[in-house]
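An example makes the point: we let one protein speak, the chain in one-letter code, the fold tokenised, and here it is:
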Amino acid sequence: MNKLYFPSDSAEAKRLAKRVGRGQLKRIRNGIYTDAPWDEIAALVQSRWYDIVDYLYKDAIASHITAVELRPIDGRVFITANIKQRKKITIADVLTIEVQPGDTQRLTEAFVPNLRRSAPARYLLENLQSARNTANKLQSKAYGRLWVEGELCKILARRGEAELNKIRDLAREHARALKLEKEFEQLDPLVSALLSTKPAEHLKTPQALAIARKQPYDSERIRSFELLADYLHRCELDPKAYDYSATAWRNLAFYESYFSNYIEGTEFLIDEAEDIVFSQKIIDHRDQDSHDVLSVFDLVQDYQEMSITPTSTDEFISLLSQRHKALLQQRPEKRPGEFKTKANKAGDSLFVLPEQVEGTLAQALTAYITLPEGLHRAIYMHFVITEVHPFDDGNGRLARIMMNAELARAEQFKLIVPTVHRDSYLNGLRDATRRQKFRTMTKVFSDLQAYTASIQWSDYAEARATLERHLADKLPDQGVPTFNRQISKFRINLP
């Protein structure tokens, strides 16, 4: 592994110099050596920048934008040290260290064993400093007021009002000693406005203004929704027109409920589910599970209900609440119809925080209304609900209900998500959530709508026989090859 070498005394400096003479090391700056090949020096220097800083300035701290990023940005890091004048040090033409004079003791915290950084109260002040006049804006040491607003919003969302007040108190206490009084005069009203103790006019960013108006939202999720909407605008999705038939609609509603519940772990044999829905028979010792299947069916078989889609924030929130209440009416411990009060997560994915749910849903409608009706809006709606996860339980089933309502409203075929296709469905959602890659998710829903439209729903026995012949009711490891041969018929070109 490539290393950096720093002599601790003159004797070691001489030994390293001799190794340079023998071609074993390279000197990249006075007192700094490496055994890395020339083409690997840049990566080494930029990844171990803090070791270089520690060698050059033992008392230094990472400050300004570097205290935030903890890495070089465009080959530059900013540090504060006990010096009298600002300095600029270049290492091997691949790293520039901007050294600011200042206090290195106040408001700092551990970063790596040999280097500290500005703590939040300090780096917020530092990033409010006016940037030096320069032709190259990338050289600015401070992110500026708008960034600070965004950072305050994140701190408030993640750690609450008490933490924001603590940061302000620390900044007030140390601003004079740090010579950042003017910056504190900017920070103080921003915090007050976010906490609604001063007018919102002090704020500029949409997210901060939303918080001040008591409607905070998850800005990262909104950005994901905007990216999805942009992607969907570039997709040509062939609509699958649906002509209403009471019998076909009822038969499709049964499988819509059956598969939607199976995905969530409410597993019945098809014969058992038929008894629940068509004979109103509650399966022994599974009263609540039986009602889950029946509740979804009752919702999705109601053609009038499934033709309602939101046109405003109030309608959106009301629809979600009403449908969730109907969905989990037999599970009072799940607080049917009430938004979550505790954060929820799946694996390592944390969903939208409770206090941001209504604001995020409201903001999500902005991109929603720009999309064509039908599958475009359906995919978008499904993703919004799964990302926000507004309730304690039932979010997956609700997302699929809201998605199919968009299709019903547009007089298009609703879609089912068969058990056999569960992994593809979930993989598409993971790609969208973690990487903002939306092709797989879009393809899955497009394929499934086309597949659903290919089934003769007016004859229940024929529909069931078709699904079983395609192994749609089997687990993915049992039926994927057979089922994939069917959906491969519905090819679609996506960006």
User: Anything to note?
Assistant: The chain has three domains: 4-105, 145-212, 219-487. The chain is about 50% helix and 10% strand.
